[in-house]
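Field reference: sequence -> structure
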Amino acid sequence: YNQDHLDELFAYLTGVLEADTIFPLLTRGNPRDPDSKKVDVEKYERYTQQLAAAIKNQDIRGYHSFPFSDLINAKRMIRHQVISRTLRENRYQIPCLAGRLGATLLPYGQLLPCEMRLDRAIGNLRDCGYHFRRLWFSKKADEIRNEITASRCFCTYECFQTLNLLFNIKMYPRLLNEWLAIRWAKRKIRSSPENP
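Structure field:
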């Protein structure tokens, strides 16, 4: 798997393809080859730190073409840290908002709180005449949401980690700090005598 070739991959993506942004994603769920889930946390951390430094040094731009794009870059950096810690400790880090702010809809109408929770379907849209609200606000949905909260459910699924970070006020100081670090690094580069 590519975790043993991350330096070459980074050089190829930034040097040859001239990528503006890079998204490292971990294998999740039940892959065909279970070995694909064996992640060396040290390598993941080194790579995500390399990405963070590249954005701050303007070697890659990350998100850049819309207001508050650096806030999204900051969220990505914090998300990598939360995922690293989750991998390292194999335990809950922050509350999961699966089934509250996001869900997974499978091709045949099955609504899940999260793609990692195939065992906990809220229901099927086909069975309720495609009335999403009927499923979303059902007693079963409430039970599943409460179960996720009570069990302190955790994983490394990047999409839900985004929700968990952006809608958790306790994470705002870290997000603000990382955002300021990005802005400061960019300002420093722009004001550098070497930068015309």
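Note: Residues 69-89 form the longest helix (21 residues).
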